[in-house]
Amino acid sequence: MAGGDLSLELDLHLLECPICLERLQQPKSLPCLHCFCQDCLGIYITKELSGKMASATSFPCPICRRMTSPMYQAETKDKWAEQFPTNNAIQDLIQLRELSSEPLYCKPCQTKGYLNNPAKFWCKSMNLNFCEACREQHHDILHSDCGIVDININDITRFKPKKSAPRCDRHDKKIVWYCEDHQLLGCNVCIFKDHRRCEEVSTVTE
């Protein structure tokens, strides 16, 4: 595998929730640094600490099993996931990935008539793309501390839109499983939450 392909694969893995196996939404980081969708983590905590574990004040990370406690244990367990910090770095990278599947061009250059001058940087606060020259001449004068992102490192132009797949009505996740016991289609969250003890569960064929 070429180095660029390996980097792309690693980037995609970082943006994927280990529970639902889809693009992270409202990514929440645990102290062990593993990251999950806020909703997926909330469902996991509620399910993990049900029954005999209802009085527990901590839960194991779904990946490394490190015991983790929320800051405010008195809150109901379905609210625990909201207490963990949002991973802003991952969230920014996701936003970059979703910006466009086409090459990005420098906005100030376009206003001057140079329509196809490639952008090298993206300013989140302004939501504008800049080439290196325009970054120095325009952006840095006004937004020197905004944390502008080098889009060439993240290389968002390599991503192409994928054909949309059927989504689960309950969790808005891709449908990938069929439970023969209940004769129901479901996403990874459905199976994890409601069908873990079912005997006949298979992947959905294309």
Automatic annotation (TrEMBL):
The lineage of its organism: Eukaryota, Metazoa, Spiralia, Lophotrochozoa, Mollusca. The keyword Ribonucleoprotein does not apply. Pfam families: zf-B_box, zf-RING_UBOX. The keyword Zinc applies. Residues 17-65 form the RING-type domain. Keywords: Metal-binding, Zinc, Zinc-finger. This is Tripartite motif-containing protein 2. InterPro entries: TRIM45/56/19-like (IPR047153), Znf-RING_euk (IPR027370), Znf_B-box (IPR000315), Znf_RING (IPR001841), Znf_RING/FYVE/PHD (IPR013083), Znf_RING_CS (IPR017907). Gene3D superfamilies: Classic Zinc Finger, Zinc/RING finger domain, C3HC4 (zinc finger). It comes from the Eukaryota. Signal peptide: none annotated. PROSITE patterns: ZF_RING_1, ZF_RING_2. GO terms for molecular function: zinc ion binding.
